[in-house]
Design brief:
Blueprint (H helix, E strand, L loop, with lengths): L12 H17 L5 H9 L3 H11 L1 H12 L9 H9 L9 H17 L3 H29 L1
Helix pairs in contact: 1-3
């Protein structure tokens, strides 16, 4: 699928951009180090355009866009620029807490570990535990020095 296919059929360009973003998100998960090379050679699309399509395809953004498009009589009037503006509007959700961020990073770490060989995963966990213990010890030292 090439980016140029997005420009055909202006009436559903936002839908096509979302589909392309979903495709790119799936491909990116499987192409860690070669992502940008693959993007350029196989898709012929600029990195920023790809990022914008990927943003449109994020579940929260996709839901917001689908809801907006459902209320339109003239889908052709809903441009990519309007879609990008809509997803940039401030969310009514409360801002994430530090715990939310930690949980997301923890989930990503576990997902990465699950893709490793057992021996490698065990080694990485041991190394991470050591670094976390060192970080906590440093935090304790700093806190003690402040009091």
């Amino acid at each position: 699928m090439k980016y140029r296919t997005l420009t055909v059929g202006a009436g559903d360009i936002v839908k096509r951009a979302i589909e392309f973003g979903e495709f790119l998100n799936a491909e990116k998960r499987g192409r860690s180090g070669q992502w940008l090379d693959w993007l350029e050679t196989e898709c012929g699309v600029h990195r920023r355009t790809a990022q914008r399509c990927q943003q449109l395809a994020e579940p929260e953004n996709k839901a917001k866009l689908i809801a907006a498009m459902a209320g339109l009589n003239d889908l052709a009037s809903f441009s990519l620029n309007k879609a990008y503006a809509l997803i940039r509007e401030p969310s009514t959700k409360p801002p994430p807490t530090p715990s939310d961020s930690y949980d997301r990073y923890q989930d990503k770490l576990i997902k990465k570990l699950m893709g490793m060989k057992l021996e490698t995963a065990e080694s990485m966990v041991a190394e991470t535990k050591k670094k976390l213990s060192e970080a906590i010890a440093e935090m304790k030292r700093v806190t003690a020095a402040q009091h």
